[in-house]
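README: folding subset

This subset contains proteins for which both the sequence and a predicted structure token string are available. Records are stored as plain text. Below is the entry for Tyrosine--tRNA ligase (307 residues), shown exactly as it appears on disk.
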Amino acid sequence: MTALSIEERLGLIRENLAEVLNPEIIESIMAEGRHPKIYWGTATTGRPHCGYLVPAMKIAQFLAAGCDVTILLADVHGFLDNLKAPLELVAQRANYYRFVITSMLKAVGVPIDKLRFVLGSSYQTSSDYTMDVYKLTALVSEHDAKKAGAEVVKQTSNAPLSGLIYPILQVLDEQYLDCDAQFGGVDQRKLFTAAKEWLPKLGYRQRAHLLNPMVAGLNGNKMSSSDENSKIDLLDSPEAVAKKIRKAECVPKVVEGNGVLALVEYVLLPGSGLKNGVREVKVERRDAEPLVYTNIKQMQEDYENDV
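--- output ---
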């Protein structure tokens, strides 16, 4: 395989992202001939569904770009978020997450020698980490902690104190996982900007942040593990997958909110590029030659024109 240039590697990292905060951090690391260290965390709260393919394809691109990737299986975070994950179930859930995510990456043929999984509870109860938690609770206001977690922590009228600790842990994870950048959805932007402000209070360096867009589910709304109609389960049979695709909310000539087009854009096209070296999606037609797409713009234009 031909070695990629710095620009090609940066292109893989940036592709399909909604935003990059402090991109110069990653650019300078590459200019120095080093490999950026990127971390992505997922709370082990429920069974992964096809929505996980979206961050998985980005992680695959990070690996293809030569980055070192750490996946945090955030068992403690899941417990803190309104007791979503009973601690007695965490170990088995974490094993399943590790297996599923590794399988996704292997499916598109990227090397996983630069991938590591870390269980949150393996270091988040250490004395140094705990002391840093205490330090941030003294430096960060209740208002700022609540604001940072507003989009990622369940908000209730009488919320538990754990919801204020959750964002503090996620910020500290950047330091304790020794990353150069954290990857996550745009719903975490407030938390990411908080990390840029809070870490220097403890004498730690700022990190870059890579923001993925929120992708529509099959019903046109945000994909959710609690909404059976919005997602495809990874254990669904081929017949069940086909049935859900046929029932998907696809308003004629309207691209926005189309979950099927989103899967093509964020999963199928980048996945085929990684696996086959060519980005290509073929649409079979009953009474005509198949349509072949190499970029999402072509497909979106055809859909808007009712081709």
